[in-house]
Specification:
Low-confidence stretches: 588-594
Mean pLDDT: 80
Structural class: alpha/beta
Largest sheet: 6 strands, mixed
Distance between the termini: 81 Å
Radius of gyration: 35 Å
Number of helices: 21
Shape: elongated
Length: about 600
Amino acid sequence: MKTSAEQVQIDEAGKVYRRLWSYSGAYRAVFAAAILAMAVYAGSQTGFVYITKLVTDQSFVEKDMQFIRWVPFMILGVFFIRGIADYVATYSMSWVGRQVIKRMREQVFAKFLALPTRFYDQSSSGALLSRLTFNIEQVAQAASQVLTTLFKDLLTIVGLVIYMFWVSPRLSLFVLVVGPLIGLIIRGLSKRFRRYSTRIQNSMGDVTQAAEQVLEAHKVVKVFNGEAQEIEGFERVNEKNRRLNMKLAAAKAASGPIIQLMAAIGLSSVVFVATREDLSGGMSVGEFVSFVGAMLLIMAPLKHLTNINGPLQQGIAAGQSIFELLDAPGEDEGGARRVERARGELEFRDVSFLYQEEKGAVLRDIQLHVAPGERLAIVGRSGSGKSTLVSLIPRFYDPTAGAVLLDGHDLREYRRDDLRRQVSLVSQDVKLFDDTIRANIAYGAMRDASAEEIEQAARAAHVLEFTERFPDGLETQVGDRGVTLSGGQRQRVAIARALLKNAPVLILDEATSALDTESERHIQQALEVLMQNRTTLVIAHRLSTIENADRIVVMDHGRIVEMGSHAELMARDGAYSALHRMQFAGEAGHRADA
């Protein structure tokens, strides 16, 4: 009697496998060819044991010399047909399997791009990458190798069992006694395989994450002598993965000998019964030899069927994790309002926001109006909510309460893609792709920009000043995450990208805070060009860079505490003035130390 929990697990596994099966169903013609080839392969096995009967009776019993001459050609023909069928079946199913992998990876990758920012806040990138690589490979085992074994070996067993019943129904019944025992063993092993498979996949995510952290933070590891600590941490997750794999290997290794033992019991029973004339039914020598041959031939596919249970359960567990990702809700597509080019008027109306209930609100009752073309600076201590505030504009997040408006309409009314075409972003942490400088400037929707437009943006952002020294100019490869360029050069490429986009709303998030004086001078010149005729929100750490802003907003603990021009805020002698004095006293101290 199954418990409710066991029944739920079985139902879930069935749903997952039916969904996996639907991927293979998209390639019906190739799949049908594979099934037909498997049927031919299975028939060749039965044909071989029948030839064994004929050879034994005609050659060794009746001494038919004319028949004996045809035996080598018959054997050669059977194995030739079998070889062709095996090749077609294996290749066709492998083709289907790789198509399934390709399609699933495309869907998972597309889902990565469609998932909301909140999802990434709560997920490990290592675990997500493990689903794209390791877990989908596990699905391939279920989609190709498992199905190949299932159909080919199952058809082989069916063909041989039918032949055995045709030769001797009585002896065949003895053989079938071990069937239910094998079924019970497979059921017990299935639960264990699935349990270990799920744990292994989670463990692989831990391994990937541990390695990814070291690869991304290798400089921090080196400068703080963290090699031993990272090796120790990786050893823990690596050892856990090894232990889980060995438990799975032990279960797989035990399944084969147990099944073979069951088959040996059946074979022993057959030999015992065959020696009793009253039970054997008077079989000929050829019939007995072919019957035993059929039994022996059944053992190999029976073992294969038992062994596929491991990959099958791994595939189901992997499919479950992938489908959870694919079924996760994507980003809101927005409303139906279209906009070609916005005026750039922004309003934050009673906006509050929180990431998690237990951590409290990050923004509280924000009331702010930004006129078209205005340069608004946002300052405040770390954690005051500056970056969160501007991240609401491209709808990386939506307000928990209140609304953000563009040109008098709630952002949620606009089509998401239209809205994001109105916004450019330049941040301190510049993201470049492993491509040319030209391709990084003309990225995404701008990839069809003309060479003249790209060069004009590059010139305005002072990019040509350094690319002219490169042999390949704008065609220079920037490497992974732009490692071949300096921080200032990467910033200028990002500014050129924003210039080429020519969006009416511009967000500058700490765009110059990590640059040296020479680089900052070039960047400031490029930013001056970029900010012209645009609504600009500047998050600044260095207060000296925003003194010429039209208005400065001071934030503290998620609230706006002051607002005005630099001169007005200094005259008030409030929060901004205190930040200004603190910063410039620190800079004066540094200069004195130098």
